[in-house]
Amino acid sequence: MEKKPHEIVVLYHEHLDVNWARCTDRRIKTHSVLTRSYMDVFDWIMDVLPDLCERGFHYSEGQTIFFRTFMERHPDKWGTIESLIKNKGIEVLRQGEVICDSNCVPAESIARNFLIAENFYSKYCKGAWSTKLGFLWDAFGNSANMPQILKLSGAELVGGTKYRLCEDHYWVGIDGTKLPCIDMLLGSAHHVDDPIYYLLSRHPECPECKGFGCEKCDGRGMINAHPFNKETVICFLEGTLEIRDKRFALIGAEESIPGHAILDAIDELNKKYAGDVVFRCGTIEEFWNHYHEFYKSVEDQYNDPTPELNPVNAGCYVTRIEKKQRLQAITYALIRAEAAIASRHWAAGTRAPVMDDMACAWKDIVMNIQHDAIGGAQTDTGYRECMSFLDEAESIAYQYANVEKPYHANRAAIDHSRDGVCRKKLGKIDVIYDIKGIISAKKNGIDVFGEYRYRNQAYTGTDSEPLHIGELVLQDDWGEEYGWMLLGPELPLSEYNCQVCESGNTIWWAGKREESDPRAKTLAWETRIQASSDGEYLEFTTDVDWDTMSKRLRVVFPVNDYASTESVWEIPYGFIKRSFDPNARHKPLYNTGTSPTSGYEYRSTCPTGEFPALHWVKHEINDRQGVALLNKGIPSVRWLPGNLSLSLLRSPQMHDITILPHVQDVWDIDGMRDTGHHRFEYAIYPYVESLSNGDLTRIGYDYNAASPKIPFVIEGDVVVTAFKTAEDGNGFILRVQEAGGTGTKIKLVFDGPKYVSPVNIIETETGHTVHDHVFSANLHKHEIFSVRIR
After folding, report:
1. CB atoms < 10 A from the CB of 258, how many?
2. Distances (CA, A) of 520 to 467, 546, 673
3. Tens digits of per-residue pLDDT, 380-389?
């Protein structure tokens, strides 16, 4: 019997950033040179694909913003691309409207990313296997509840975990949801023994027309300076023959133009290995059909939550902080606005689909949760482009939500600058303070704050004075937007305070650092504190004037626990316990020689103690006492034994690969230093009686004005994340999150009988319809639960 030749199937995946080194749909003009947009690059790719697919090539991408924009730009060409999608020449993966961040953004914005994309998937990819694959390529880490979000968005398996790779064959979320994860068998840049071929391209402007378009560049304004090389492809594919049982070889590309070099390499290899090996292009669907029985056989081995795929690019939790603040505030205003619209229809007994302007606003929000955009890893022009989308979303949301923007000026009613130690009761908290800051803050006579000093300071050789509660601290931060190569010693700023005053129910401090520091041209601040409306915690408002280079500004809270390395962080739709030991030695996660960007990937995953928080971080001193730190769009929190800190600003100067001066002379990144005036809002909640995570989650949502008002009663340990009209106008959608992490029973009580149907994030029914004036359901821990109400 003739031996069947071994087969190597080449899989190709393209990743395009929606906004990073280029703008989304705008062009950057610098020194009379035009840098084309990512949509222009995608146009180029779509133009070359039909000929390649005729030769057997297969292409995969899944961010619907690219396909939708191409369709709007080129209706005459869309028929060809639609045909390629139907015939699997193009595999459209379930990536959402964009590949979004899932750490520093409001929970509901992640759901909307997939809901918006569903319009495209359901119309142009109906029945396609490819949309079952949730592919997260290039996301900067992933939330530990992402498996549940993906499953509720229509995904049945997942892949593309990157930087921090899911190293199990199943990704299990904190709620118990598990999805097959194909990365360990598909291949990764992190695999020393099973690498992928990865090509990062950057297309410089055409030298003839300087980017404006001419005959030489076929009007594109760009040249393909980094094409695929046939010899390199051959070398890679021949290397796969040395890997036992290897059948599928992944070629990954970023901004690359897929060319005939890959197909020419396959043709040459088929001649060389005729009769022994067959090389061809194929689909990721073929990969799954080949391995799905294996995944079934190992499913029972994976029941515990997968180790978290964070942190990644911890600098991005702070870089371009104003966008994070505005995104959160505007998203929550939009949620309140759509709830107000839905409530009016509810009261009137009318039905209506989502209005066009609200749909536009959500697309604006989703543009800003793209991983580079919210991470601040973008050009200044790209940043302004994204901020204009937020301006539009804000105008729409504020119109319907009737949002007011209160502003409180600091007034020196009673100046205590020369009075030494002073006392004031704010709510339930007794505050002792002086011109340097808060010395103690007791609740019920108990002070959960402690004494913390920076030891052996480099600039004095001595220990610092005890830190004040909520003291500002300055550090050297040598790095780029993604992270840092070196953090310098902390410099407490209380010595630079020049005024402290009481005004009504507030205390405020002012300070300014005036030193011969060329990297801190401007650094001035005012901090005001007041009690929360219930008197349980202290609300801080800090204004900063900032013009620095390679610096970081933190606010620190000394805590009376010097042993524990663990705290609890809220994440989108849940919370997770994290730990960091500052005395531990941290080795690289992966061999740093297996990726063309390995130096960046090592820095991006090196633990530093910084983790992203949605609204709160809680440190438990004991079973009854602890502190919780609340924030409004300021996600970067670090716990070190005895020290809870929140990073407010950083001013990176290095450009990493966002700017490649040997390719494009576009020095359009100075805005990463965040020069200008900033206002930050955060709060510290000392508790001396037990505070549940469910209660704290509701407090965090209330502090951020994130929960919409609803026209009926809800009972249970939940928080409401959305109440809106259904996308198709057929009723209303309610979404809640199990808040306590232990499971709960939810009860909805209406004025009269309603039809209630469980649905998923993309508003597809998932359970039986109940007709009654009361609806009940049992929710498991961290469950995201949605219903359609008619």
Report:
1. 22
2. 22, 8, 11
3. 999 999 999 9
pLDDT of residue 189: 65
With CA atoms as reference, report the closest residue to 10 among 399, 355, 270. 270
- Residues in the chain with pLDDT < 50? none
The whole-angstrom separation of Cα 567 and Cα 628 is: 10
Burial class of 453 by CB neighbour count within 10 A (0 to 12, 13 to 18, 19+): middle
**pLDDT of res. 401:** 84
Is the separation of the CB atoms in 604 and 163 below 8 Å? yes
Please state whether the peptide bond connecting residue 311 to the residue before it is cis, i.e. omega within 30 degrees of 0. yes
Largest pairwise CA distance in the chain: 99
Distance between CA 382 and CA 372 in Å, rounded? 10
Residue 354: the pLDDT is 87
Q: Are 741 and 577 in contact (CB under 8 A)?
A: no
**CA dist., res. 307 & res. 139, Å (int):** 17
Cα-based distances in Å from 27 to 23, 32, 35, 203, 220: 6, 12, 6, 14, 12
What is 18-64 written as a DSSP string?
SSSSS-SS--EEETTEEEPPHHHHHHHHHHHHHHHHHTT--EEE--H
Nearest residue to 21 (alpha-carbon basis) of 662, 668, 602, 650: 668
State residue 402's pLDDT score. 80
Query: By the 8 A CB rule, do 98 and 366 touch?
Result: yes
Q: Do 541 and 630 touch, CB atoms closer than 8 A?
A: no
Residue with tokens 């999150």: 737
Q: Is the dihedral of CA 201, 207, 208, 210 positive or negative?
A: positive
Terminal CA-CA length for the chain: 65
Q: Which helix (H) or strand (E) holds 239?
A: helix 230-240
Report how far apart, in Å, the C-alpha atoms of 39 and of each of 57, 138, 395, 725 are: 22, 18, 26, 32
Closest CA to 13 of 232, 191, 250, 182: 250
The 8-class DSSP code of residue 278 comes to E
Predicted local confidence at residue 667, as pLDDT: 79
Do residues 370 and 99 lie in contact, with contact meaning Cβ atoms separated by under 8 Å?
yes
CA 321 centroid distance within chain: 13
- Please report which helix (H) or strand (E) contains residue 240, including its range: helix 230-240
Nearest Cα to Cα of residue 783 among 265, 50, 107: 107
State pLDDT tens for residues 586-621. Answer: 776 766 555 555 566 677 888 889 999 999 999 999
Q: For residue 2, what pLDDT is reported? A: 64
Nearest to 262 by CA among 15, 90, 58, 83: 58
User: How much is the pTM?
Assistant: 0.97
